[in-house]
Design brief:
Length: 206
């Protein structure tokens, strides 16, 4: 009788061990094997490359809006100390997307800035000169020759035929969505060096 009870105890322990192992394995693999994200397409029909799901989860880990607001305020205050002032904090969202996701994916995705030129060309954009920038065009910020940031031009003021000021709306990494002057961005984003439009204009670069 005691042998049978001992066998039952051992069998139950072994079964529990394998059940827990299976559950742990499933919990580990499911998020990466069953990526719930929907594909994002360019106008040409090309599927935009998204970060690997494991990286995506790390990039878009939930953050309280109060923390995002605090970081955004800190960056804005730093810029103000350098005479670079923002115009408006458009939104603080706990759903994380980046500058590329704001412009090309309706604020629904985090897309690496490295994909910017492929997306621009697949969406039919052409590079234009600064003198012909209009609202609705895009500005690409570069640093050491590499793209670091993209924003949407929202306003262009001209004085005697020359551009006097440009306003841009862009998403600052994991921080807020900001409307700002063309050059009023964190140093890590670099400088506004390229302007792109999907309109067919006469003054095209290249």
């Amino acid at each position: 009788m005691w042998q049978r009870r001992l066998f039952c105890v051992i069998f139950s322990a072994v079964s529990l061990h394998f059940s827990l192992t299976a559950i742990t394995t499933t919990m580990t693999l499911l998020p990466f094997d069953n990526d719930p994200r929907k594909p994002v397409y360019a106008r040409s029909g090309w599927e935009i490359t998204l970060p690997a799901y494991a990286e995506y989860l790390a990039l878009t880990e939930y953050q309280a809006e109060s923390d995002i607001q605090r970081r955004t305020d800190s960056v804005i205050n730093t810029l103000a100390g350098k005479n670079k002032r923002v115009l408006n904090v458009r939104s603080i969202s706990s759903y994380l997307y980046n500058c590329v996701g704001m412009v090309f994916a309706c604020r629904r995705a985090w897309i690496h800035i490295d994909e910017i030129y492929v997306i621009l060309r697949n969406d039919g954009y052409i590079e234009i000169s600064f003198a012909h920038v209009e609202s609705g065009d895009l500005v690409v910020y570069t640093r050491n020759g590499k793209p670091e940031h993209v924003g949407l031009v929202t306003y262009v003021n001209r004085f005697q035929g020359n551009i006097d000021s440009v306003h841009v709306l862009s998403k600052w990494g994991k921080d807020g969505e900001i409307e700002h002057h063309l050059n009023s961005v964190p140093e890590v984003f670099g400088q506004p060096t390229e302007f792109w439009s999907e309109k067919r204009k006469p003054h095209v670069i290249g």
